[in-house]
Amino acid sequence: MEVASLNKLIKILIHASTWFAPVLLPLIAWLIVKDRDVKRLSLQALVFHAIFLPLFFISKVLSFLLIGIPFAILFGIMLIYFPVKGIAYAWWEKQYEYPVAKWFIH
Fold this sequence. Notes:
Mean pLDDT: 87
Shape: elongated
Keywords: Membrane, Transmembrane, Transmembrane helix
Radius of gyration: 15 Å
Protein name: DUF4870 domain-containing protein
Order of helices and strands: HHHHH
Number of domains: 1
Transmembrane segments: 12-33, 40-58, 64-84
InterPro entries: MamF_MmsF
Membrane topology: Multi-pass membrane protein
């Protein structure tokens, strides 16, 4: 497998890791892979998860007070939509930056 195809596959897996290893896979990719784009993407994925997963769980806790239900729905949709969008961009070999995470990683 050539390097470009391997990097494309790794990018897709980093985006998809939201559902099975949201911290582990991006961290491993960041530590092992030499490609600058893959490293940047894996770091953005880590920051994305570090921000949105706590927000999602906080909104779940607040849902007992009824105020968190809209936030839980919103953050749940975001945790699905943005990784799927990232998978599509990686498939089309286009650059994708996670929202919020791109503010922390230049």
